[in-house]
């Protein structure tokens, strides 16, 4: 991970670490904090705890997002302090979920914009001039548009991939595929590396092809405290506990010292977290299908 | 005390009754999720639960702690990418009921989940839209669940995240919105419904033992009400048993 | 199948029977011919033998397509006779594959058009006025557009589905998902009906949700002479043999009499075809994945 | 007779040599497929084969009889929907080499696979574009495989299905095409390449024992050629052994 971040994440980059609740790559976020990247434009539908930590650590110049809360547990206070003018300045560019999905879809297709029937009656276009409109060449209907989002680097956490980065994901898929195809560089982080033959045995499960991947990193528990379907559950206590930590800048600083700066890598994090085994997933293995002909 | 119940339990029961069997519902976490599962366990066994995270036909074995809970995926009928959720399901018009909540809901059902105060210098920065803007625009109808409070029901919201029935005097049809918007607001004391003629939220039904004045006290505008107000039945024993013993045994959402 | 076609396919309808080489529902096509539907607008990327037969049978008023050949074996002569003015008149509306995929993508999203960077320098827009252009509201770039395609009815063949039509497909996916979501009515035809629990055991395999399906039909070998991954191989001899049959209108009429009009249903077709077992797929079953948490 | 070989074998070997290891190739059925698999078996083991049907990283265990052959899926790295193939792979610029053939190829590399004669009243109705139009526009470069024949190489095509290097005098750049287009035409007697200055296809290399006049005889315009023509090496023993014993043992495509 150290090498992958050093090689592919640069100061000033537009960075996407995607994963909707599922497979959020905290391992990569922590490494970016450790390497003290600066002036990043961080993009995610839900900034979540990972971007709250990166904002607190001073990595971010700008945030592009659609829902900035602590799902089911409260606020992202580092984000809120910045947004409410009580923290470091942070530029905000705000859409809805559909808008962010559309921006990445356009980026993946290498089109300059994406069309939606959306935003009429909302104040979002008033505060975000990048939400515009286009007239249908057939019906004349005016539809709303968002510009393509093409990150410098996208980091995707997957359950498994082969050495070339052919990555398979099951459970919630979020916008990882679109983000990866939209990006100039792609880092795939996985719970486990498998032999190419395991990928080839079930090609319909592959979400990201190795041909667009620049680096593959194995990082078990790399998505903790978020979850990896079939590997480990969400550490909900940590999410609830974050409310208290992030509310107090000093406590947040202590957390970063202890769990990020104070550690050399993810293995040390896993060890420091102690009993993560309590989150280990139960077995609900599905049947295979026949690819014969 | 078997007849006593909390406001959350009442709101959940009332919201559940709003759902018809077989409907496709865009579900949120908390009371909406409980309302949907209560409906599934009672009069609407064929309700199709869809979460913006992509889980379609979810049958959560545990109370989901987030909209992307793994329990929503395990045993579901389909997992959609979010691009498909918003384009092929929501924008396609397949969602019959959406649930919305908000820090502010105004006279015309406009909802604010973005900022309290000025957008560029907010006193309180809220999470933002998430999928709320497009749900309010596309779902055939949306249900709002919110406790009465003058701050929560101002005359005008500070920011329109999810459009209601009048936006600067313009109707949803004039603005080209496919869905009917927030047709009903389920509060802790009464039910408000949109007056289709004026686009205004009006009082249409009271919970047992509630006076109109108590409702008006929690509303930031001169609340109008139907001449004849219906009284809403309290949660039945069965509804309460399901909520307490099966759906939220730890009282995560139903305590108050 | 008889009931599904009678109920959902009407004279004058715009009909899509999709499946790119894989899972082409000949069973539905034959039933539509048997029920003597007329004035249909037939849409498919590759008309293939199924639409060549439906054109010969007089079901079609118009064809919307992007590649009208007999893959690897020659021509679709019923189509060619019509196109070359030596058969019944057939209106043609022609795109490229990308254009047809884009039309169905727009239809599925219920947008009036779809945007592409395509068609510059080709003669297609000259002969098809529905290929137009739009200016990007951000860059000013002029991009090409195609109008949404929203069929009256789409027929999709899948390996399996439950009784509600939650359909799972693996192997080539073509544009079936887009076509189904774009359509007012959807008929799902499957090799086998499985219990809902089998679908729920592997939700990431579901391509079409039952909530958009109007009818579910079980029709083993329903895609013959095309193939169903994991069930049976393509009957390539039939595809090669079609060249000779379709070249001669009399021979084609005889084929329809014998294999379509002369038979009451698909079971009789399977029996008449004789030894289809030679096409039975070998076993290449993949491993399952864990959906536990 | 071990040194003798068919034109198809020569064309396949020549096309295979054009592919570099690790390249991402949009493959067609027939000779292009054989050329890719020959390259994989010789100098380009890491070639990534993508079929417009959606199979990515295909390793067909048998000679595919169609672009959607099940053998292209079994053991492949990924199956993409066709929307992803055209938007995320081709339009995204990930395809480095595309293969095209055609009933007509003109002086400027424009290709016709749509109609012979007038579009509305064709003498021969051809299959149409399929993915050819977008491949010619987006693939970083495209290779054309076609036997020489005056009817196949007219001065001007009857219909431009896949654009070449000059369209009514306009260049690809002027028209905004991302890819380089058909840079090389592999025929049964020689290799034609585009002259980057004029956009015209010119003779650059001859096969063993072929005279310029024989090539010109199969071209419908005044063919220009480089001053110094290189001679193309015939298929090696190894190439022939692979083609005959492994890749097309039944001689489906290599007979003539």
Description:
The complex is a heterotetramer, with 2 copies of chain A (293 residues) and 2 copies of chain B (256 residues). Chain A has helices spanning 2-8, 26-34, 48-56, 77-83, 97-108, 124-127, 176-182, 196-200, 236-247, 249-261, 266-273; strands at 14-17, 40-43, 60-65, 91-94, 113-116, 132-135, 142-147, 153-161, 167-168, 185-193, 206-208, 215-218. Chain A has 293 residues and is of the alpha/beta class. In chain A, helix 2 (26-34) packs parallel to helix 3 and helix 5 (97-108) crosses helix 7 (176-182). Chain A starts with a helix and ends in a 20-residue tail after the last helix. The mean pLDDT of chain A is 97. Chain B has 8 helices and 14 strands. In chain B, a hairpin with a 3-residue loop joins strand 11 and strand 12 (190-194). In chain B, helix 1 packs across helix 2. Chain B is globular, with a radius of gyration of 18 Å. The mean pLDDT of chain B is 95. The interface between A and B is large, with 53 and 53 residues.
Helical residue percent of chain B? 10-25%
Fraction in beta strands of chain A: 15-25%
**Classification by helices and strands of chain A:** alpha/beta
Strand numbers in spatial order across the main sheet of chain B = 2-1-5-10-11-12-13-14
Count of discrete alpha- or pi-helical segments spanning 4 or more residues of chain B: 8
Question: Any key phrases for this structure?
Answer:
heterotetramer; A: 293 residues; alpha/beta; nine-stranded mixed beta sheet; three-stranded antiparallel beta sheet; 12 strands; B: alpha/beta
